[in-house]
Amino acid sequence: MSRGVVEIEGAGLRFGDRVLWSGLDLDVQPGEFLAVLGPNGSGKTSLLRVLLGLQSLSAGKVRVVGRSPGRGNRKVGYIPQQRAMDEQLTLRGTDLVGLGLDGDRWGFGLLGAGRRRRRVAELVDSVGAESYASSPVGRLSGGEQQRLRVAQALIGEPDVLLCDEPLASLDLTHQRVVSELIDRRRREAGTAVLFVTHEINPILSYVDRVLYLVNGQFRIGTPDEVMNSRTLSELYRTRVEVLRVGGQIHVAGAQSALCEDEVHHHVDERVS
Ligand SMILES: Nc1ncnc2c1ncn2[C@@H]1O[C@H](COP(=O)(O)OP(=O)(O)OP(=O)(O)O)[C@@H](O)[C@H]1O
Fold first, then answer.
1. What separation in angstroms does the CA of 184 have from each of 8, 74, 105, 179?
2. For atom 27 of ligand 1, which residue has the closest CA?
């Protein structure tokens, strides 16, 4: 097997006495789609923060596109967990998307400015944001802002795309637009995708492997290998039933164990 674009070896992360995970070995291959699942507080966002160089490991090693994680690695695209932007923010949608290009191979100068504008317009178009991309982002809805963040993350043509619940706050149509866009990027350009989510169903048809984190433990494997009653019961240390209905995965029992809300119960109109 070739070296991964994300290489994680013997990785552990703890805060005080609390071990989020330990002994994590994971190679993510170019073009692979990895879903990162787990209840609140299991360390999904912290894993992305490690890969972004915003959080140090307590043990082990990690490399992203062949180097230590660090700020300003332009080969890494990031769609952060949704937070409403300040209403007073006067930055326009197109400016926000363009920030994803700053200092990169698209260049500056007069010729660069034209290319840059066209490239921003292409990405704005791809997320269906044309009608509001010239408005100040602070006045846009959460879902509209989120689509611009997706365009911003993709515009730099990343080799690794880190997504933190990118579908949260999107309606079903735009969940599909955004997940198809991310899938197309990894198919056409071989971008590896690490996709943190509470809902596997909207992306189930794209997922190659799942990393499921629960209370310091984890499992890695295909959706069939991980999303079954035996494996999730072991992870949650309680009886968990996993049902496959109409191509979707329904998990029952995990909520009572760890107060996980509505997990995996989303009804995706794409898979019927
Ligand atoms: N710098 C830090 N110092 C101390 N504790 C931290 C720090 N960063 C994260 N934590 C704790 O680690 C735990 C995991 O947080 P993280 O955000 O990674 O979880 P998550 O799986 O993404 O959760 P959610 O599904 O709620 O987004 C939380 O309990 C959080 O409070």
1. 25, 20, 21, 9
2. 40
Q: What is the domain range of residue 109?
A: 90-153
Provide the angle, in degrees to the nearest 10, between the axes of the packed helices 142-155 and 172-189.
0
pTM given for the model = 0.87
Is 94 within 8 Å of 125 (Cβ atoms)? no
Residue 124, domain member (yes or no): yes
Closest residue by CA, ligand 1 atom 2 = 15
Give the count of domains, the chain: 1
What is the per-residue pLDDT across 169-185, written as a single tens digit (0 to 9) for each? 788 988 988 899 899 99
Residue 104 belongs to a domain: yes
Residue 47: its H or E element: helix 44-51
Is residue 132 in a domain? yes
CA distance linking residue 177 with residue 121, whole number of Å = 17
ipTM rounded to 2 decimals: 0.96
CB 196 within 8 A of CB 48: yes
The answer to whether residue 137 is domain-embedded is yes
How far is the centre of ligand 1, averaged over its atoms, from the C-alpha of 243 (Å)? 29
